[in-house]
Specification:
Rossmann fold, 5-stranded parallel β-sheet, 8-stranded mixed β-sheet, 15 helices, single chain, alpha/beta
Length: 417
Protein backbone atom coordinates (compact mmCIF):
# COMPACT_ATOMS: atom_id res chain seq x y z
CA UNK A 1 0.00 0.00 0.00
CA UNK A 2 1.39 3.43 -0.95
CA UNK A 3 0.82 6.95 0.32
CA UNK A 4 -1.19 8.07 -2.73
CA UNK A 5 -4.42 9.80 -1.77
CA UNK A 6 -7.59 10.82 -3.54
CA UNK A 7 -7.95 14.57 -3.99
CA UNK A 8 -11.26 16.36 -3.94
CA UNK A 9 -10.24 18.53 -6.88
CA UNK A 10 -8.91 17.54 -10.30
CA UNK A 11 -5.34 16.24 -10.43
CA UNK A 12 -2.65 18.67 -9.31
CA UNK A 13 0.99 18.35 -10.26
CA UNK A 14 3.82 19.68 -12.38
CA UNK A 15 2.69 21.36 -15.58
CA UNK A 16 3.95 19.89 -18.88
CA UNK A 17 6.73 22.51 -19.15
CA UNK A 18 7.80 21.80 -15.54
CA UNK A 19 8.64 18.13 -15.98
CA UNK A 20 12.38 17.43 -15.88
CA UNK A 21 13.85 15.70 -18.91
CA UNK A 22 15.65 12.40 -18.14
CA UNK A 23 19.32 11.66 -18.83
CA UNK A 24 19.27 11.53 -22.62
CA UNK A 25 21.54 12.69 -25.43
CA UNK A 26 20.12 15.42 -27.69
CA UNK A 27 21.85 16.50 -30.89
CA UNK A 28 20.51 19.49 -32.81
CA UNK A 29 21.36 20.60 -36.37
CA UNK A 30 20.13 24.13 -37.13
CA UNK A 31 19.82 26.16 -40.32
CA UNK A 32 19.18 29.56 -38.71
CA UNK A 33 20.88 31.40 -35.80
CA UNK A 34 17.59 32.14 -34.00
CA UNK A 35 16.84 28.41 -33.76
CA UNK A 36 20.30 27.75 -32.31
CA UNK A 37 19.78 30.58 -29.78
CA UNK A 38 16.41 29.16 -28.69
CA UNK A 39 18.00 25.71 -28.27
CA UNK A 40 20.80 27.21 -26.17
CA UNK A 41 18.25 28.91 -23.91
CA UNK A 42 16.39 25.64 -23.53
CA UNK A 43 19.63 23.79 -22.81
CA UNK A 44 20.46 26.21 -19.99
CA UNK A 45 17.12 25.51 -18.32
CA UNK A 46 16.96 23.51 -15.07
CA UNK A 47 14.57 20.99 -16.64
CA UNK A 48 17.23 19.95 -19.15
CA UNK A 49 19.99 19.76 -16.54
CA UNK A 50 20.33 15.98 -16.86
CA UNK A 51 20.28 15.93 -20.67
CA UNK A 52 23.41 16.21 -22.81
CA UNK A 53 22.64 18.77 -25.52
CA UNK A 54 24.87 19.37 -28.55
CA UNK A 55 24.05 22.12 -31.10
CA UNK A 56 25.64 22.74 -34.50
CA UNK A 57 24.78 24.39 -37.80
CA UNK A 58 24.17 22.61 -41.06
CA UNK A 59 20.61 21.34 -40.87
CA UNK A 60 19.55 17.93 -42.15
CA UNK A 61 22.49 17.64 -44.58
CA UNK A 62 25.00 17.93 -41.72
CA UNK A 63 23.06 15.35 -39.72
CA UNK A 64 23.13 12.86 -42.61
CA UNK A 65 26.90 13.28 -42.98
CA UNK A 66 27.47 12.98 -39.22
CA UNK A 67 25.52 9.76 -38.67
CA UNK A 68 26.38 7.82 -41.82
CA UNK A 69 27.57 4.61 -40.17
CA UNK A 70 27.39 6.12 -36.66
CA UNK A 71 25.03 5.60 -33.70
CA UNK A 72 22.40 8.33 -33.44
CA UNK A 73 21.45 10.03 -30.11
CA UNK A 74 18.29 9.47 -28.11
CA UNK A 75 16.77 12.60 -29.63
CA UNK A 76 17.68 14.26 -32.90
CA UNK A 77 16.43 17.81 -33.63
CA UNK A 78 16.85 18.88 -37.26
CA UNK A 79 15.88 22.07 -39.01
CA UNK A 80 14.98 22.34 -42.69
CA UNK A 81 14.76 25.34 -45.00
CA UNK A 82 12.61 23.39 -47.41
CA UNK A 83 8.90 22.70 -47.56
CA UNK A 84 6.52 20.24 -49.23
CA UNK A 85 7.97 17.34 -51.23
CA UNK A 86 11.52 18.74 -51.09
CA UNK A 87 11.49 18.63 -47.29
CA UNK A 88 10.07 15.09 -47.28
CA UNK A 89 12.75 13.88 -49.73
CA UNK A 90 15.46 15.34 -47.50
CA UNK A 91 13.99 13.65 -44.43
CA UNK A 92 13.75 10.32 -46.26
CA UNK A 93 17.53 10.45 -46.70
CA UNK A 94 17.92 11.21 -43.00
CA UNK A 95 15.75 8.22 -42.10
CA UNK A 96 18.30 5.92 -43.78
CA UNK A 97 20.96 6.79 -41.17
CA UNK A 98 18.81 7.19 -38.02
CA UNK A 99 18.55 4.29 -35.57
CA UNK A 100 14.97 3.00 -35.02
CA UNK A 101 15.17 3.79 -31.27
CA UNK A 102 16.04 7.45 -31.84
CA UNK A 103 13.30 10.08 -31.77
CA UNK A 104 13.33 12.87 -34.37
CA UNK A 105 11.90 16.39 -33.99
CA UNK A 106 11.75 18.44 -37.18
CA UNK A 107 11.86 22.25 -37.15
CA UNK A 108 10.54 24.10 -40.19
CA UNK A 109 9.58 27.56 -41.31
CA UNK A 110 6.22 26.68 -42.87
CA UNK A 111 3.01 26.13 -40.87
CA UNK A 112 1.81 23.32 -43.13
CA UNK A 113 -0.77 20.87 -41.75
CA UNK A 114 -0.30 18.42 -44.62
CA UNK A 115 3.47 18.40 -44.09
CA UNK A 116 2.91 17.79 -40.38
CA UNK A 117 0.61 14.84 -41.04
CA UNK A 118 3.00 13.30 -43.54
CA UNK A 119 5.93 13.67 -41.15
CA UNK A 120 3.97 11.97 -38.37
CA UNK A 121 3.02 9.16 -40.78
CA UNK A 122 6.68 8.65 -41.61
CA UNK A 123 7.68 8.34 -37.95
CA UNK A 124 8.77 11.81 -36.89
CA UNK A 125 8.07 12.53 -33.23
CA UNK A 126 7.05 16.18 -33.68
CA UNK A 127 7.11 19.06 -36.14
CA UNK A 128 7.73 22.55 -34.75
CA UNK A 129 7.41 25.84 -36.59
CA UNK A 130 10.20 28.37 -36.00
CA UNK A 131 10.83 30.71 -34.30
CA UNK A 132 10.99 28.37 -31.31
CA UNK A 133 9.87 29.18 -27.79
CA UNK A 134 12.33 27.58 -25.31
CA UNK A 135 9.62 26.62 -22.80
CA UNK A 136 7.46 25.03 -25.50
CA UNK A 137 10.50 23.12 -26.77
CA UNK A 138 11.19 21.83 -23.25
CA UNK A 139 7.54 20.80 -22.93
CA UNK A 140 7.73 18.88 -26.22
CA UNK A 141 10.93 17.08 -25.23
CA UNK A 142 9.58 16.22 -21.77
CA UNK A 143 6.38 14.93 -23.36
CA UNK A 144 8.33 12.54 -25.58
CA UNK A 145 9.82 10.84 -22.52
CA UNK A 146 6.88 10.87 -20.09
CA UNK A 147 4.04 8.41 -19.65
CA UNK A 148 0.88 10.14 -20.92
CA UNK A 149 -1.25 7.76 -18.84
CA UNK A 150 0.84 8.02 -15.68
CA UNK A 151 0.03 10.00 -12.57
CA UNK A 152 1.08 13.67 -12.81
CA UNK A 153 4.49 14.39 -11.37
CA UNK A 154 4.26 16.34 -8.11
CA UNK A 155 5.27 20.00 -7.92
CA UNK A 156 8.20 20.91 -5.67
CA UNK A 157 7.81 24.08 -3.56
CA UNK A 158 11.07 25.07 -1.84
CA UNK A 159 11.05 27.35 1.22
CA UNK A 160 14.20 29.06 2.48
CA UNK A 161 14.91 31.81 4.98
CA UNK A 162 17.05 34.78 4.01
CA UNK A 163 18.50 34.66 7.51
CA UNK A 164 18.28 32.50 10.60
CA UNK A 165 15.07 33.03 12.54
CA UNK A 166 13.16 34.52 9.62
CA UNK A 167 10.43 31.90 10.08
CA UNK A 168 10.70 29.95 6.81
CA UNK A 169 10.12 26.57 8.52
CA UNK A 170 6.99 27.82 10.28
CA UNK A 171 5.71 29.25 7.00
CA UNK A 172 6.52 26.06 5.05
CA UNK A 173 4.73 23.85 7.59
CA UNK A 174 1.62 26.05 7.83
CA UNK A 175 1.31 26.50 4.08
CA UNK A 176 1.86 22.77 3.55
CA UNK A 177 -0.93 22.12 6.06
CA UNK A 178 -3.24 24.60 4.28
CA UNK A 179 -2.58 23.00 0.89
CA UNK A 180 -3.35 19.55 2.28
CA UNK A 181 -6.21 20.23 4.68
CA UNK A 182 -7.96 23.26 3.20
CA UNK A 183 -7.24 22.88 -0.52
CA UNK A 184 -7.33 19.06 -0.38
CA UNK A 185 -4.18 18.45 -2.43
CA UNK A 186 -2.02 15.48 -1.46
CA UNK A 187 1.05 17.05 0.17
CA UNK A 188 4.30 15.84 1.70
CA UNK A 189 6.41 18.19 3.83
CA UNK A 190 10.09 17.23 3.55
CA UNK A 191 12.37 18.47 6.35
CA UNK A 192 15.92 18.74 5.00
CA UNK A 193 17.29 20.40 8.16
CA UNK A 194 18.61 17.06 9.41
CA UNK A 195 20.21 18.09 12.74
CA UNK A 196 17.75 20.84 13.74
CA UNK A 197 14.53 20.17 11.83
CA UNK A 198 11.23 21.14 13.48
CA UNK A 199 8.57 19.31 11.44
CA UNK A 200 8.18 16.78 14.25
CA UNK A 201 7.86 19.51 16.87
CA UNK A 202 5.47 21.69 14.90
CA UNK A 203 3.12 18.75 14.26
CA UNK A 204 3.54 17.25 17.74
CA UNK A 205 5.06 14.04 16.35
CA UNK A 206 8.16 12.15 17.37
CA UNK A 207 11.03 12.97 14.99
CA UNK A 208 11.98 9.87 13.05
CA UNK A 209 14.86 8.75 10.89
CA UNK A 210 12.74 9.24 7.76
CA UNK A 211 14.73 11.65 5.62
CA UNK A 212 18.10 10.53 6.97
CA UNK A 213 17.37 6.87 6.18
CA UNK A 214 16.20 7.79 2.69
CA UNK A 215 19.35 9.82 2.00
CA UNK A 216 21.57 6.97 3.18
CA UNK A 217 20.25 4.59 0.52
CA UNK A 218 18.21 6.55 -2.05
CA UNK A 219 18.48 3.71 -4.57
CA UNK A 220 16.22 1.59 -2.30
CA UNK A 221 13.54 4.26 -2.04
CA UNK A 222 10.47 2.69 -3.64
CA UNK A 223 6.77 3.16 -2.83
CA UNK A 224 6.84 0.49 -0.11
CA UNK A 225 9.82 1.98 1.73
CA UNK A 226 8.39 5.50 1.43
CA UNK A 227 5.15 4.24 2.95
CA UNK A 228 7.15 3.09 5.98
CA UNK A 229 9.23 6.24 6.36
CA UNK A 230 6.52 8.88 5.94
CA UNK A 231 4.26 9.91 8.81
CA UNK A 232 0.62 10.13 7.74
CA UNK A 233 -1.40 13.08 9.06
CA UNK A 234 -5.00 12.91 7.83
CA UNK A 235 -6.19 12.11 4.33
CA UNK A 236 -3.95 14.49 2.41
CA UNK A 237 -0.85 15.27 4.48
CA UNK A 238 2.35 13.27 5.04
CA UNK A 239 5.51 14.28 6.91
CA UNK A 240 9.07 13.34 6.00
CA UNK A 241 10.75 14.23 9.28
CA UNK A 242 14.39 14.89 10.10
CA UNK A 243 16.07 13.00 12.99
CA UNK A 244 17.11 16.24 14.80
CA UNK A 245 20.12 14.47 16.33
CA UNK A 246 23.67 15.77 16.73
CA UNK A 247 25.32 12.40 17.41
CA UNK A 248 25.63 11.52 13.72
CA UNK A 249 27.13 13.08 10.66
CA UNK A 250 25.02 14.00 7.65
CA UNK A 251 27.12 13.88 4.50
CA UNK A 252 24.77 12.87 1.70
CA UNK A 253 25.67 14.23 -1.73
CA UNK A 254 23.69 16.17 -4.30
CA UNK A 255 22.50 13.05 -6.09
CA UNK A 256 20.99 11.62 -2.90
CA UNK A 257 18.86 14.71 -2.19
CA UNK A 258 17.76 14.83 -5.82
CA UNK A 259 16.83 11.14 -5.79
CA UNK A 260 14.77 11.51 -2.61
CA UNK A 261 12.77 14.42 -4.04
CA UNK A 262 12.29 12.56 -7.33
CA UNK A 263 10.87 9.59 -5.42
CA UNK A 264 8.54 11.69 -3.27
CA UNK A 265 7.14 13.66 -6.20
CA UNK A 266 6.28 10.38 -7.91
CA UNK A 267 3.67 9.64 -5.23
CA UNK A 268 2.65 13.08 -3.94
CA UNK A 269 1.02 15.92 -5.86
CA UNK A 270 2.70 18.68 -3.85
CA UNK A 271 6.12 18.46 -2.19
CA UNK A 272 6.90 21.24 0.30
CA UNK A 273 10.66 21.34 0.97
CA UNK A 274 11.84 22.97 4.19
CA UNK A 275 15.46 23.99 3.55
CA UNK A 276 17.87 24.92 6.34
CA UNK A 277 19.51 28.32 6.47
CA UNK A 278 23.03 27.49 5.35
CA UNK A 279 24.69 27.12 1.97
CA UNK A 280 25.83 23.90 0.33
CA UNK A 281 25.89 22.53 -3.24
CA UNK A 282 22.82 20.37 -2.62
CA UNK A 283 20.82 23.36 -1.29
CA UNK A 284 21.72 25.40 -4.37
CA UNK A 285 20.75 22.48 -6.63
CA UNK A 286 17.45 21.98 -4.78
CA UNK A 287 16.52 25.65 -5.11
CA UNK A 288 17.41 25.80 -8.80
CA UNK A 289 15.47 22.59 -9.50
CA UNK A 290 12.29 23.53 -7.62
CA UNK A 291 9.09 24.36 -9.48
CA UNK A 292 8.44 27.34 -7.20
CA UNK A 293 10.54 29.07 -4.54
CA UNK A 294 9.48 31.05 -1.48
CA UNK A 295 12.10 33.21 0.26
CA UNK A 296 11.17 34.32 3.76
CA UNK A 297 12.85 37.49 5.04
CA UNK A 298 12.55 39.98 7.86
CA UNK A 299 12.78 43.77 7.23
CA UNK A 300 16.43 44.16 8.25
CA UNK A 301 19.76 44.70 6.49
CA UNK A 302 21.02 41.10 6.67
CA UNK A 303 17.81 39.81 5.11
CA UNK A 304 17.96 42.50 2.44
CA UNK A 305 21.50 41.59 1.43
CA UNK A 306 20.89 37.83 1.47
CA UNK A 307 17.58 38.07 -0.38
CA UNK A 308 19.17 40.19 -3.09
CA UNK A 309 22.01 37.67 -3.50
CA UNK A 310 19.60 34.72 -3.64
CA UNK A 311 17.33 36.33 -6.21
CA UNK A 312 20.24 37.33 -8.43
CA UNK A 313 21.65 33.80 -8.33
CA UNK A 314 18.26 32.25 -9.10
CA UNK A 315 17.60 34.66 -11.98
CA UNK A 316 20.92 33.65 -13.51
CA UNK A 317 20.30 29.92 -13.12
CA UNK A 318 16.54 29.90 -13.86
CA UNK A 319 16.30 32.14 -16.96
CA UNK A 320 12.92 30.77 -18.07
CA UNK A 321 11.24 30.87 -14.62
CA UNK A 322 9.43 33.60 -12.75
CA UNK A 323 11.17 35.27 -9.83
CA UNK A 324 10.95 33.61 -6.40
CA UNK A 325 8.06 34.65 -4.19
CA UNK A 326 9.12 36.90 -1.33
CA UNK A 327 7.44 36.84 2.07
CA UNK A 328 8.32 39.55 4.59
CA UNK A 329 7.74 38.19 8.07
CA UNK A 330 7.59 39.68 11.58
CA UNK A 331 6.81 43.16 10.27
CA UNK A 332 6.00 45.79 12.88
CA UNK A 333 8.04 44.37 15.76
CA UNK A 334 8.00 46.97 18.58
CA UNK A 335 11.17 48.98 19.20
CA UNK A 336 12.98 47.38 16.25
CA UNK A 337 14.16 49.66 13.44
CA UNK A 338 12.93 48.28 10.12
CA UNK A 339 13.69 48.85 6.46
CA UNK A 340 10.49 50.24 4.89
CA UNK A 341 8.72 47.73 2.67
CA UNK A 342 8.95 50.02 -0.37
CA UNK A 343 12.74 50.38 0.00
CA UNK A 344 13.15 46.64 0.54
CA UNK A 345 11.23 45.85 -2.66
CA UNK A 346 12.99 48.51 -4.76
CA UNK A 347 16.44 47.29 -3.70
CA UNK A 348 15.89 43.64 -4.64
CA UNK A 349 13.62 44.33 -7.62
CA UNK A 350 10.82 42.05 -6.37
CA UNK A 351 7.54 43.06 -4.73
CA UNK A 352 6.63 41.01 -1.63
CA UNK A 353 3.98 38.40 -2.34
CA UNK A 354 2.90 38.46 1.29
CA UNK A 355 3.59 40.57 4.37
CA UNK A 356 3.07 38.97 7.78
CA UNK A 357 2.81 41.09 10.94
CA UNK A 358 4.66 40.39 14.17
CA UNK A 359 2.29 38.15 16.17
CA UNK A 360 4.46 36.50 18.87
CA UNK A 361 1.61 35.28 21.08
CA UNK A 362 -0.17 33.44 18.29
CA UNK A 363 2.96 31.90 16.79
CA UNK A 364 4.35 31.03 20.21
CA UNK A 365 1.15 29.29 21.27
CA UNK A 366 1.04 27.27 18.06
CA UNK A 367 4.69 26.23 18.40
CA UNK A 368 4.35 25.22 22.05
CA UNK A 369 1.18 23.23 21.36
CA UNK A 370 2.55 21.50 18.28
CA UNK A 371 -0.29 22.94 16.17
CA UNK A 372 -0.74 24.88 12.98
CA UNK A 373 -2.11 28.42 13.17
CA UNK A 374 -5.43 27.41 11.62
CA UNK A 375 -5.91 24.70 14.27
CA UNK A 376 -5.97 27.33 17.02
CA UNK A 377 -9.21 28.70 15.61
CA UNK A 378 -8.12 32.32 15.95
CA UNK A 379 -8.42 35.09 13.37
CA UNK A 380 -5.06 36.35 12.19
CA UNK A 381 -3.73 38.51 9.32
CA UNK A 382 -0.77 36.10 9.08
CA UNK A 383 -3.06 33.12 8.65
CA UNK A 384 -5.08 34.98 6.02
CA UNK A 385 -1.89 35.77 4.11
CA UNK A 386 -0.69 32.16 4.35
CA UNK A 387 -3.98 30.88 2.96
CA UNK A 388 -3.76 33.31 0.06
CA UNK A 389 -0.18 32.25 -0.63
CA UNK A 390 -1.19 28.57 -0.54
CA UNK A 391 -3.86 29.36 -3.12
CA UNK A 392 -1.36 31.28 -5.25
CA UNK A 393 1.18 28.44 -5.18
CA UNK A 394 -1.40 25.84 -6.18
CA UNK A 395 -3.76 27.89 -8.33
CA UNK A 396 -6.61 26.55 -6.16
CA UNK A 397 -9.08 28.02 -3.72
CA UNK A 398 -9.55 26.54 -0.25
CA UNK A 399 -12.47 24.12 -0.07
CA UNK A 400 -12.88 24.17 3.71
CA UNK A 401 -12.53 27.85 4.62
CA UNK A 402 -14.16 31.16 3.89
CA UNK A 403 -12.48 33.64 1.57
CA UNK A 404 -9.35 35.10 3.09
CA UNK A 405 -8.45 38.74 3.44
CA UNK A 406 -6.06 40.32 0.91
CA UNK A 407 -2.36 39.75 1.49
CA UNK A 408 -1.74 43.40 2.21
CA UNK A 409 -4.84 43.97 4.33
CA UNK A 410 -2.71 44.20 7.45
CA UNK A 411 -1.17 47.38 6.07
CA UNK A 412 -4.47 49.07 5.39
CA UNK A 413 -4.85 52.24 7.32
CA UNK A 414 -1.28 52.23 8.58
CA UNK A 415 0.64 55.42 8.00
CA UNK A 416 4.38 55.26 7.57
CA UNK A 417 6.80 58.10 7.92
Amino acid sequence: MTMRVQESQEAFGAAPHERPVPRISIHAFCEFPDTGAALQRAGADRRLAKANLSIQLGGIGAAITRYDGQVTPNLLIVETRLSGKAALDELDKLAEVVDPASKVVVVGRVNDVELYRELMRRGASEYLVAPLDPLHLIEVIAGLYSDPHGRPLGRVLAFMGARGGAGSSTLAHNIGWCIAEEIAVGTTIVDFDLPFGTVGLDFNDEPGQGVADALTAPERLDDVLLDRLLLKRGDHLSLFTAPALLERDYDAGNDAYEAVLDSVRQITSCVVVDLPHHWAPWIKATLIGADDIVIVATPDLASLRNTKNLIELLRLNRPNDTAPKLVLNQVGQPKRPEIPLKDFAETIGVEPTAVLPFEPLLFGQAANNGQMLAELGQKSPSLDAMRRLAGLLTGRKPVHTKASAPLFSLLKGKKRA
